[in-house]
Specification:
Blueprint (H helix, E strand, L loop, with lengths): L5 E5 L4 H14 L2 E8 L9 H7 L4 E6 L1 H15 L10 H20 L3 E3 L8 H12 L4 E3 L12 H10 L13 E4 L4 E4 L29 E8 L2 E5 L2 E2 L2 H14 L4 E7 L5 E7 L1 H17 L2 H19 L6 H13 L5 E8 L2 E8 L7 H4 L11 H9 L1 H12 L4
Parallel strand pairs: 1-2, 1-4, 2-3, 4-5
Antiparallel strand pairs: 6-7, 7-12, 8-9, 8-13, 9-10, 11-12, 13-14
Helix pairs in contact: 1-6, 4-5, 7-8, 9-10
Length: 406
Amino acid sequence: MAKKEKVVLAYSGGLDTSVILPWLKETYGYDVIAFAAELGQGDELSGIKKKALASGASKCIVKDLRKEFVEDYLWPMLKAGAVYENGYLLGTSIARPLIAKHQVEIAQAEGATAVAHGATGKGNDQVRFEVTFMALDPSLKIVAPWKDPNFTLTSREAAVDYAKKHKVPIDQTIKKIYSRDRNLWHISHEGADLENPANEPQDHLFVMSRPVSKAPNKPEYVTIGFHEGIPMKLDGKLISGVKMIEKLNEIGGTHAVGQVDLVENRLVGMKSRGVYETPGGTVLTTAHSALESLTLDRDTAHYKQHVALKYAEMVYNGLWFCPLRESLDAFVNATQRNVSGEVTLKLFKGRCTIASIKSPKSLYQANLASFTMGNEYNSMDADGFIRLFGLPTRVANQVDRQTGKK
């Protein structure tokens, strides 16, 4: 009897991967190894090994990747200032290359010939997983059921029905059918009534944060201490990155901070609508940006904005393991040498605003910024500066007037 071919499936225990696991066995006879990454999903991984084995997996491997996620993925992204399309803090995007990396490592250790994921053929995750697989081990076969002509579970309703018929344990129902992805950084909500951008997100949607209408009537202040761009202290106390984000999720979520309703442009070309909750990430991103405003010189700050846009695009598109991202990290790390200090933020009714910024590396000098003139700044110097600065504009307009173009 021929030995079964092994495949390592990225397994979340959600609807898609729950039905894909038995489908892989039933359709192609795979020996399926389920891999679940602990990235801070709360209680979502409770009983996941039992669930995977009950669904037909030969083995279920669970790895706690929270520390690696924070230190090797979230902190570089935070330092870069990466935000996609002015709102999305890239919570799902940044996690996929990490999951795929460990899938590859497990496949190599277990003698598997293939890796699989449950991303649809319409979404971005298929790219993020598969580009990472190809970068780290191109010899592995990539199995993507949603792009397989034999796969007929092409709607969430069909997947729920398949699960019931095959006695696959799931939590989703036809009525409770949002597609969600949660980790330490955020939770995303897609599908169902959200597919129509005209529909307002309902209060029951939110998981990590309260609706704004139910946020406290009294603001709360938090202070983040940074060292070279990395958050190290919360309210004056040293704290690990994982604990920092967990605590800020709790505090920020209480005040409805970090809720974003976004129609975004997917890599595959279509627009999609998602609602994101990123309470702790919003606090940290706001604080980091504020500290940079005090510590980066003008030209570096302005150039870094271009880098941030490119960095966000690359994370969104799944290009984590590529030479350009590594090169951009070298630039970003150089910009962070003086990004040390403390930022105090005010959290109130869905807003996260700056209350105070302090840094031993501050480039802000009160005597220069003051409206009171002093010996440190000669205002007459501005006359010559403005004449030279405006010279190209003056000449261009003078020529236009002489030639009758204006």
